[in-house]
């Protein structure tokens, strides 16, 4: 479904109204998810499919990875394997597998075919308004009602890639590997793409089949970001509540300073 930026989110209450209005209209209410982005011009695109020098046509590449999709998936595999090789000292025999590898890597910032969402609209809203580097940009607030129930048992590679149809997605409930997952009410989507695609079409520009996934995108005016940020702090939604560790606490202090909240 194409984006609809006519309706704006100007307060946390607006986000809750959106959640209340649309959440009960589909089959799998428990799978409803929200996402916030600091710049409205950004599309909802998984990290591995975003612009990268790796896909620059001027760069020589092996013949085996001479397409956008093959390049993206090869690069994802390289990053994931390097992550586990170097993170071994920090990990206590984690479950390994196609899905679990990518979920853990995504959780720590590695670009993958996954996209982060939250079951909590206020958490998603926080991510849209709390970036000091983009406070002058309109943000975006996404609502997603998927066609499939959230899967808590991690699928195999064959199950995730069984759908040959392009522009499809699977909703996943990540395992609670640390306190951040429940704090963020985290959800993930895994995205398929046609092997001959030249780029990944942002979700808000995709046309889903009737009865399939339902997506809405709302604009957050830059002028409203400061007010929303302060209102979220007042109701206990801040960086430390979403990242409940010392690093999250320090980052909360930094963002308050940069966003002039004293």
TrEMBL record:
In terms of InterPro entries, this protein maps to:
FRG-dom
Q: Which residues form the FRG domain?
A: 28-142
Q: Which domain of life is it from?
A: Bacteria
SMART domains per the UniProt record, alphabetical: FRG
Question: Which protein is depicted?
Answer: FRG domain-containing protein
